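Notes, Module 5: Reading structure tokens.

Key idea: the token line is not a picture. It is a compressed description, and you learn to read it the same way you learned to read a sequence, by spotting repeated patterns. We will look at two proteins. The first is printed below with its tokens.
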Amino acid sequence: MARIMICDDAAIMVKSLALNLTKMGHKVVAETSDGQDAVKSFREEKPDLVLMDISMPVKSGMDALKEILKIDPGAIVIMVSGLGYQETVLQAIKEGAKDFLIKPVPYDVLETCIHKYVPAPTHV
């Protein structure tokens, strides 16, 4: 079971991701709606993986990504955005994101991506 943080200003997206991650057997340790809170929650929770929107109020996901990687250069941050422009994807990867998902994220795509970076929970 991985400890995962979700950062997105769209409440419906947070709810959907949280539901799907829970179905996969992971634990959502924090939900934030802006980049500033994302950085604060990352420091407090030290999650195994972060799902981060790009367009958020207060501080963008790209800025939060940079700050999180300063705190922990090995942090696993996957950008999740409706902005699927090639230059945005390339910029996120260049800045240190491990992967990039386009909204809406189908369950199987999310599961495959998550399990590239954290092990799938074993059910006993």
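Here is the second protein, with the sequence above and the tokens below, as before.
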Amino acid sequence: MSDQRNAACVAECDWFRDPTLQSVMAILNEGDGEARIAGGAVRNALMDQRVGDIDIATTLAPDMVIERADKAGFKSIPTGIEHGTVTVVAKGHPFEVTTLRVDVATDGRRADVAFSTDWTADAQRRDLTMNGLYADASGTVIDLVGGIADIESGTVRFIGDAGRRIEEDYLRILRFFRFFAWYGKGRPDADGLRACARLKSGLSKLSAERVWSELKRLLGAPDPARSMLWMRQSGVLSAVLAESDRWGIDGIPGLVSTERTLGWPADPMLRLMAIVPPDPARMAEMAKRLRLSKAETRRVTSWAEQEELPDTVTDTVLKRHLYLGDPTAIEDRIRLRLSALRAKAETDDSALMDAAKVSRLLKVATGWKKPVFPLKGSDLVSRGFEPGPSLGKAMAELETVWLESSFVMSKNELLTRLATLSK
């Protein structure tokens, strides 16, 4: 596609008119320099989506970017200078400014690049057409790869040869499915899908952090079900999440439907739990392999270790479980149980009644606030108990009494039970 200026324009967008952004663009466009907004900000603006980070592409070499930023009184950070990226911080707002590039060599994870002034070459080295858009200093969108038409049709398409784009960075396989989950319509682009299936073994070259980051963002899409179905059929899902093989992805549509109906926020971790087995050992291994954060690891392993409570469990017993166990793990179990029952209820009336019972449990769990046991060890010491095992045993026995009272016994009432306990 020739270097034509499209009618699309972002000039009236609030983020584009921001004086800080405009001041950065102005110094980069002085003299022989040219800068354009690149990638996601332009894409999201055309889709009426929220614009977050704003990336800038420029014909200036990194040292010239630093020189101009410093002269203007902005802070410059060489965050990825070997690849042409300098972070310019203006009035506290960071902007990644990257020199136009061409790939000299790639190994499926990273690229050796040469700097360039060729906008077409820079666009053609990017991954997807909807990410290969620019907006110039006037706000006019420049489309060199057919991205606008693909945005309008909901087509997630690699730029140029799909296989070549993937072999430059195998993470693009997961990005293909992630963008399809967020923005795609109908069926995935056939060439892209075939290339992903053919080259999926290359995913093993990627770091666990990059894989999990993409998976989590995919799972956070409004409805990732269609994308995950194609990931399953192409073999990509098994390549990065073997734990889902025999468990399947059938739980995702019901979970997404329940989220929408009941107003739950999209929860990537809960969606992950919906497609993997509640096996503590396997979850611990998965967490280690994908290098989940400590909080994520704790959540998925606690969920796996948590027993499934019967739908008929009483509020009193549920509260005891919440007090003694992991409330988040219990709530995760209840939410997944409820979404499964709601999906089953579409063809099974009895499941609707069970769903009502589980809804009651969820209401109790989400409203739960852990009560504070009213006794302290010092209370027993002041009444003659010596610090040590006997005191610990007495405290445990009194806490059990308190639990059996549904947490209502007062400190004085519990102390009256001391006479029944052996020191």
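Summary for the second protein:
- Confidence is low (pLDDT under 50) at residues 1-5.
- DSSP finds 22 helices and ten strands in the chain.
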